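Backbone shape codes:
***
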Amino acid sequence: MSIRRLPSHLVNRIAAGEVVERPASALKELVENAIDSGATRIAVVLAAGGIERIEVADDGCGMTPAELALALERHATSKLPDEDIDRVQTLGFRGEALPSIASVARLTIESRPVGAEGWARTIDNGALERDGPAALPPGTRVVAEALFARVPARRKFLRSPRAEYGACLDVVRRLAMARPDIAFSVEHDGRRVLSVIAAEGRPARVAALTDRALADNSVAIDLEREGHVLGGVAGLPTFHRGVADHQYLFVNGRPVRDRLLIGAIRGAYAEMMPRDRHAVVALFLDVPPSEVDVNVHPAKTEVRFRDPALVRGMIVSGLRRALDAAGHRVAHSAPADIMALWTQGSSVPPAFDGDASGTSGEPVGSQGSAPTFPAGQGLRLNDHRPTFFAAPPQARPTPEWTPPPVREDFPLGVARGQVAKTYIVAEAEDGLVLVDQHAAHERLVLERMRVALAGGRVASQSLLIPEVIELEEPACDRLEARIAELAEFGLELERFGARAMLVRATPALLGSGDPKGLVTDLADELAAYDEALSLRERLDAIAGTMACHGSVRAGRVLSPAEMNALLREMEATPHSGQCNHGRPTWVKLDLKTVAKLFGRS
């Protein structure tokens, strides 16, 4: 077979395979062109998720008829005036998007510069159909219709209109986040789904496009080092999500998906967030154009840094400094009254007045001060009256004194106490056992749900007042498509408008939990794993998420009876040695190890 030059229409279709993978990628190219044109308002109109119609209108500089014809030729662009590709400062520069889209769709471009006449040009799957005057305000309007209609091999690989719409919305959201000086609007099937005004500050724009609660649960990032500037907002460690889709990264105003940046974020939040949770951040990195290569991928979503170590160090240190400066508002921070006890080194414990109620005096947390007693009133070893050593009274009836349980031959021993309201301390026949109460109970709840599901259906508990959960429309679409499966777990949902779900019942096994957090996490996991998992795997993922929300939380005080009941159920439950995320639920220190800690042989 001899080598030959491919015809132009085939070259365009091959290029379209790299640039135009789906409606969202075509929309991205068109919106980037609008931004590069100097627009202050960009309006997007979609039909059937962008499969049938994509329209992008802007008030940018516009094009003359000659420029319009040239723009539809391959590798024709106005964005490299000095031919220095190492110093690209615009979003687009390859000159491939418009001819690639025109080769697989019906593309109409109408444009008019200020003070000139408008002109329109229509290309139908590579063939010129119309070239003539048009009436429109200054700016450009691009309409792409019937994407891949004549390329059935590509069209059949598109996802459902709802899925494609969600991808299109995410593209506009990211580009709008990068340019708060531009007003954006999106309509889908005749309904306005996104609208943000210009002249917003960056934190306000990020909050408007992600979660309104982010404004009150985030810190500002501001760091400059060796000509590199890092800005943006970062959610507190307690403000996290189940998937990493809520991490928005920008390099010189360009939305990117870079492993280096994602790894740096994970490193910055290390030891402050569970491994299975992800921070909500929007980071904007501005670097000299010569220090970054944006010509790595045809879709321009990947970049390569000249000094990756510098960039990673900036992100890690910038995030950590901002989180530290916020007063350590991290997960499970101690209440102010508890922290105050550690500063009362000079306080003197009140004398014991003989009252067995245990309510007199204030709690004392002296640092190294020994207790003192009036003469003749020292405590005997068998004196079980409450003293200043006793825990503060709980808001529930308890016996004045409970004899310690007798140690029996249980594998996980008998509960002796609780540390940091998180870990159960148990004494076993051969050592000391520490149990993470949340991780352990999470596994127990999951196994209960699996047993109930194997029996047919998980029992549900109706809410006295149904709760309305506001979500993004694509998230509601995903939940609505799985309503029947979720009902098997006792979670009864209904669609409540375009951007809300109504929770009528929750699984009885979960008790009175947090329906909003549960539904939000389920929507995130469906977005990340729904299409790739089998039904059985999907059900296990749903059960794991529900179990996490229904388990005993760290920070809850447990009674001795509750702690021992948890230990006994762990002994009878399979896989109770690890939680749903792979973390251990208990560890044991044998007696020899404990003896070594105290220098005993």
Observations:
- Residues 161-178 form the longest helix (18 residues).
- The first strand starts at residue 41 and ends at 47.
- The radius of gyration is 31 Å.
- Residues 264 and 315 are 6 Å apart (CA to CA).
